[in-house]
Write a structure and sequence with these properties.
single chain, globular, 3-stranded antiparallel beta sheet
Length: about 130
């Protein structure tokens, strides 16, 4: 299971729409590695003036890698994180997460990062099974 959903949160979902803060709290508690990594990348972005900041360090274990993959593979989780942090997330390999400023989306840097060429240039044999 990707998220650990409390009975209260499940009841909230069964009644209708879930409050964004409640959903984000569930993500933070369920996927702590992914949350910490994305928080750090967002903080790095906020401290500088670059169009994006990224992580290039592989996760320490398969458990952490799984958290990151689950967070970024789910449209709901990824979108919730993007709205919470006010960024656009981009993802390459099994660990290279980038946070882009919203105004950078559609620009040359974002296009290069998310292109097929960018993906291919970011490959290496040691990442084949990640």
């Amino acid at each position: 299971m990707s998220l650990t959903v409390s009975p209260d949160l499940l009841a909230e979902a069964e009644r209708g729409e879930v409050a964004p803060a409640d959903f984000v709290a569930c993500v933070r508690e369920s996927l702590p590695y992914a949350w910490q990594l994305i928080s750090r990348v967002v903080d790095d972005l906020a401290r500088g003036d670059a169009e994006f900041a990224d992580n290039v360090v592989p996760p320490p274990s398969e458990q952490e890698r799984g958290q990151l993959l689950r967070a970024l593979a789910s449209d709901a989780i990824r979108g919730g994180l993007e709205r919470h942090f006010g960024v656009k997330l981009a993802f390459q390999n099994c660990h290279r997460v980038a946070a882009f400023r919203p105004e950078a989306v559609g620009g040359d840097t974002y296009a290069r990062f998310t292109s097929a060429r960018g993906q291919l240039l970011n490959q290496s044999p040691e990442l084949r099974d990640c």
